[in-house]
Amino acid sequence: MPKEIVAETCPPPECNLTEKEITQLVEELEDYYQLFEPAFQRTEQVEKGKVYLNGMLSDLSRKVTEQIALRHGENVRSLQHFIGQSPWQTEPALKIHQQQVVETLGEEDGVAIVDESGMVKQGEHSVGVSWQYCGSVGKVANSQVGVYLGYASRKGYSILDGQLFLPEKWFEEDHAEKRQACGVPEDLSFQTKPEIALQLLKNALKRGELPFKWVAADELYGDSSNFRDGIAKLGKWYYVEVSCSTQVWIERPEVHLPEWLGHGRHPTRLRLRDPDHKAVRVDELAKQIPQDSWIRAKIRKAAKVPSSVMSVSGES
Q: What is the value of pTM for the model shown?
């Protein structure tokens, strides 16, 4: 019998913590931050990092560096330099964070989740800003977009890593001054979102232990055969959305490399041995699966996008 799984959004819980519990929470947060002190080279970097963290957790309406510095009595330019120009690496902090995720959430059949998130911007000078699809508003907007890698298991979930997506036009000559002003590395080249996502996965595996079996992603990534093949080469399974027009074979077809006819280029692409053995659209294949083999689940894609229904077949 088919099952229907409904995921509803709930209002945030009321804050019913006691003063003692809040004090304990602050102490635990202090202990947690100390885990990351080895990621910094100097003591003043540790202190400025703590100021910035406190600012991000505060009730400031605009959590920008200037407002954070003023709230905590810090020199504005000093904190801005720490965030924007100070030569400290993020990789050591990411490695510590990933280790904590493994220790607290790690399970052998965990799931690595790839997705993107966008932030609407008003101006044109922020790095990577462009008119592009922004999931937070559910439409094309002037925005910055980042690709993120998350981790989920029965024990909980967390973000592992992320990278800003730079649209291809940002690498054109007319954007050279903007790249220099924003500090874009000169050796950086254009990468598609699936390419960024695959690199984030590889980076996570290079850092050390990360137990997971599956990689989940939406259609943007699932439609990339290079992304899917890259996951398979990592020895992982993928659970991704694909376009309904995707062509598939029910059985693996026999292929061969055509013989060279003695003129022109040598053949390099494999051809079907039986030209009549055609692929089928994935939506046509889905119609052949019995109705009682599906599980229907209501999902919510973004905060401002209506809930939708996803059907998952139990067939392999």
A: 0.81
